[in-house]
Each structure stands twice: as C-alpha cells, then as structure tokens.
Amino acid sequence: MTKYVHQPDFMTGDELSIPTFSLLDPEGDLYPGAVEPELERDHARRIYQAMLATRILDERMLAAQRQGRLSFYMQCTGEEAAVVGAAAALNDADMIMAQYREQGALMYRGFSIDEFMNQLFGNDLDYGKGRQMPIHYGSRKLHYMTISSPLATQIPQATGYAYGQKLAGNGHCTLTFFGEGAASEGDFHAALNMASVHQVPVIFFCRNNGYAISTPAVEQFAADGIAPRAFGYHMHVIRVDGNDVLAVYEATRQARKIAVERNQPVLIEAMSYRLAAHSSSDDPSGYRSKDEEEVWRAKDPVLRLQKWLLKKQWWSEEEETTQQETLRREVLETMKRAEKRSSPPLESLISDVYADITPALQRQFDQLKRHIRRYPEAYPRGAASLDLDVGTGTDSQGEA
Amino acid sequence: MATMNMLQAINNALDIAMAEDEKVICFGEDVGIFGGVFRATSHLQEKFGKSRCFNTPLVEQGIIGFANGLAAQGSVPVAEIQFADYIFPAFDQIVNETAKFRYRSGDLFNVGGLTIRTPYGGGIAGGLYHSQSPEAYFTHTPGLKVVVPRNPYQAKGLLLAAIRDPDPVLFLEPKRLYRAAVGDVPEEDYQLPIGEAEVIKEGTDITVVGWGAQMEVIGKAVELAEEQGIACDVIDLRTLLPWDADTVVESVLKTGRLVVSHEAPLTGGFAGEIAATIQERCFLYLESPIARVTGLDTPFPLVLEKEYMPDHLKIFEAIRESVNF
Ligand SMILES: Cc1ncc(C[n+]2csc(CCOP(=O)(O)OP(=O)(O)O)c2C)c(N)n1
Q1: Predicted-assembly ipTM surpassing the 0.90 threshold
Q2: pTM assigned to the model
C-alpha cells in the first residue's frame, strides 16, 4: 500500500533509535522492572563456569604466547557474556558458525581443554590436522563449524545451513557470530537479504565490540550501529547489553523461538567492548587510551554474573577459589601434554585437498619424500614423520 | 643513501608520491592513524590529513570499487588490501572492472592511476589464510600490471613507478621480508622500470628465474650450486604482467637450462607460462627439461610449512638435476 506525501520528506532513520535490552546492572542486581529469565541453578552455573574457564584459558594462553610457546593467540576478554550467553540459549544441537573470538561458545558446549590445546599447538590430535593458525577451532560433535579466517564468509553460509535445517524439519537453527567490522562486508548484506526472502531459521549475532583491529566503530559505520540494518531486510532485531549475560541469554532464547517456530531470521546486536588487544600481534596503545579501557573494565561481564550468583547463593567464594585454581592447573597440564605431542604426519600435507589424492599430488608427494630423505636435518618434522612411517611399515622402501 | 627495511622503503615511496602530487590518496583497513597492521602507511595521515590517508570500513570489494571510481575521476588511489589472501572479495572489481575499464570504454575512461598494494607469501607461520601467493589469478587478466619487488631498493623504485604508471598495477609485497630485508635506499625520488626483468647475476651453466621473496631463497641455492662449480644466470622478473620474456630467452639461449621457482602451487602457476614460452622460443637450445620448483598443489599448510615451501635446498636439487641431466 503506497502512501503518498506532497512535500519532499527525506528520512534518515534517526527516528528509529534502537534501545538496549539490559537486565543486570554492574553490581549484579536486576534493574527495576527487569524480569529475571527462567534459568535453573545448574544451567546458570554451567554458563558461569564456561565464562570463567574462557577467561582463564585466555589469560594463560596469552601468557604462553608471550613466553614463545605458542605462535599466536586471540582473547575474547570482555565479551564472554555475549558469546556464552548466546550459546546457552540455543539447543546444544543447533549449529554455531563463529568468526574467531567465540571460544566461550565452544567452552559452553563442552570442548575440553585438551581439545583446545591440540588445535592451539597443531599437534597430531588436532581435528584440523595442524593446517590452520591457533584459535581456528571446529567440532562436528559439538555442532561448531570450523573457523575460516576470511571475514564474514560464514554469514551467508549460515543462511544456507539454516535453510537446509528448515528443509530437514529437525527443529534446529543456526547462529552465526561476527564482529561489527565484518558486518561491513558484502557477505553480511547478502546473507541477511537471502535469509529474509527465503524465511530461514538463522540468528545473526553481531558482537559490536567497538573496534576492528585499530578501526573504531565511528570509522566503520555512520548509522546507529548494526541493528538498524535489519529494517532494510524486514527482519526482527534486538540490541542487547553484551556485558549482561542474562539479557543476552533471554534475547537469544526468544530469537531462537522466532527462528525455529516461524522460520524467520533475527539479528541481534550485542554492545560490548574488546578489552584485550585484537590479537597477540596487536598493540592497542597505538590507537586507544587506557582510560577508555578502564571504563569498560568496570563493566566486567564475568564479575557481574558472579555477583548475581553469589547473591542468589548459587555460587560461593570457596567454589570460586577452587574452581580458578583447578582450571589454571588444568590449562597448564594440558598445555604441557599438547606441546610434547608430535606434529601431524607428512601425509596430512596432501590429504583432504580432495576426497581422494590426485595423481599429481601423489607425484609431488613422492618427490617431496625423496627430497626429505636426502636432507632430513632440514625438515625435522617431515623426517620424524618418515621415520615413523618406516617403523610402521606403511612407507614404501627403497626410495632414498 | 639511507638504510631501510622494506616497510620503511614503501612508506618512504608513499610519502614522496603524496608530497609530490596531491591527487595521490592512500586508504584501506587500518591504514589511518595506526599506519596499517604492518605500518607501511605510518605517519601519512599525520602529514597529509585524513582526507588523503584514511581507514575504510572492512569491505575489500568496497575498497577497490571505490578506488576504481576515484581513479576514473582522475585521482591517484593507492589502495591497501591487508593481506593478499583477502583480495578475493574484491576479485570482481579488479578482474572485471579495474582491468577492463579502458578497453570497454574505448579509452573514454580509465583507472590507470590505481595502485593496489598487498602483502603476500608464506614463511611466517600464517597457515592457509595468511600465506598465499595469488599472482597467477591476476596474471591471467589482460589490462592489469602485476609487480613484485624483492628488496627495499626495488620496493621503493617500483612502487613509485607503479603509482605513476598509466595503467592499474597490482603491487605484491613479500611480507616475510618486510622487516627482514634491509638495505641501502636513496632518500630521493627514483623509479625502476615496470615490465623489465633484472639480471642479478651472470653465469653460463643454467638460468634461474624467480620474483619477490623467492629471490632470497634462489640466492642461497645459487651459492650452493657455485660451491659445486655451477655458474648460474639469475633473473628477477620484477614484473609478472607484462613479463620480460626477452631477457629470459636471451639467458636460456646462452645457458640451455632453466629453473623457475615460486611459492604458489604448481598447477596453473606462473612458472607454467614461463616454461611454455621458453620452450617455444628456445626449443633447440634446451639441454634439459625446464624445471619448476614450487609449492604443492594444496592450500598453504601451517605446521608443515617448511616441508611445503620451495626452499634453497629444493631449488639447489633442481639446478643439480638439470645440470646432470
Ligand atoms: C576478508 C578479510 N579481510 C580482512 C581480514 C583481516 N582482519 C582479521 S580480523 C579483522 C578485524 C575484524 O573486526 P571485527 O569483525 O569487528 O571483529 P573483532 O576482531 O572486533 O572481534 C581484520 C580486518 C580478514 N581476516 N578477512
């Protein structure tokens, strides 16, 4: 139905300022008028433990990177509530397609510290066979798609995956995480448009943490964040306090209902702050002030939930202390184990490029093996792998 | 003369180009106040203002589409793509637009002012998404020029030439050498020719050809060969499109042997183009098959990077086999 006006009436969308849904204040008390989500004690504790474990893993692994034990690391410090809260509102069998700063979701789903370490150290137990940089996790068992570094590529894939879920009629949906930076990519816009046109059960979860490496949000977009974009695609949208896990949980829970019951996509924008550096290769002092960081440190999402739990007596100071100690010890022990393991075998260089190894690859590989036998000391990993092969008799003899 | 690493040489070239011509504009992800994730654009915003050196939103197709429009208008954009691995969202803009602007408009419009800078290559423990050498996709694209410097001196002279070249140039920077390659670089303005290879070393037994970061590796291989009494003619192509076939032909007519090396996979790699051209023009002079030392036909690995890379030992072996054929 077209409505005609007879004066030029330009609109900017400023009239549609989007509020932020928030339940818990920084002291861990409910805001007046806020309704506590239905969250059972054990569930709340599982959420908190995942957040705490993520925080500790991040601290320890950054330290390990600084000690030169690990080549690279990325923390999600400050965003644990956004990530874990969203995962907690899903069915554990719903698909998660993440960007790279969402280890909290994987922690919540039960990825073990050993599993984290094997990927971080790219050893023979890494599901990704030592091919990707640290933090590129994936788990088929936990319905967590393996991370890909090119930004935003997972967003239209999530639309496609969820469309398949809808056709399969299994009642599952897909949630995809991305940053406010990645939301600038063409893939983001394509994903939202296709999802709304095709009525797809997908949740687009934007972690708006204020920075894309050094680029502040004001240089990323001119409008009121990412949320208003939903209107252009005729999509449900909610903006939520990303440091308030109860609000994130409740918003995502309701988004999931819309997705699976009505087959409609939802956009969630979680407002938070990247407290850490972009990655272990980044130094934020080059582009932002310590004061700015301190403002956000005071809104710490882990502490906020802890206060709420303590007040409800669902958690205690003693539990906090023992849990922290246990986790720190576990991280250190598993790290030592993972470091000591051998690299993936030489064959992992050429497997999985195709379903079957092509003749060209086989030829190149045989040539490589001959070369490594000639100069074993120059390729310690390859040489170790070949010796193993000889030992187990799987390698053809007589090539050297 | 000053001593500079490759990043400083690139920064210096951008500084000179921007100071000389106010139409030169630098932009890309994080290139503003931060100076780029590798610091190639350090201090340019401070010096030339936010309208000439700025951060873009995170969208490569936007960066290059914007750059195409800006260049068509007469400005001289120098767009940075943060890693060559992330140039593919802009592939359509580069291959279908940048490269064909002049041709399709009968030269009514062109984007000759455009230079696209991007760090490429492996050896930095970057795995499959921070290590690629995507040159072959672009050397298959008439209308583009593709330039790859090997050291700070080359980087400055070639970048200044690229910015002032009348055609759009894809400038691939070997990131492994950004800080590792240090050398003498004149402080003043100078240009090195685009489209011309450079004979780095003369020898009579075999021709060894490469570009960019491989030149350092080739240098080590050639030293090993010389210890065995093999004299190599070493050529840095510097420009891959249009590439200087004459210089390579001339060399192979003399040596009768050719080894070409690149990090990208073998199949469809640029070494194939060189090998085909040389066998066409030097067939009767060849004394051994042309050898290609390249990456495997796989994505770039992480943990087994050393095994994957075409290193000095692999090149040395190819030289030896060629000479003993
Ligand atoms: C297509 C693409 N372009 C550039 C990059 C390099 N890059 C990696 S992370 C990043 C910033 C992403 O910021 P944002 O999406 O806001 O997420 P955050 O890091 O803040 O969590 C950039 C530019 C990339 N990985 N992929």
Answers
A1: yes
A2: 0.96
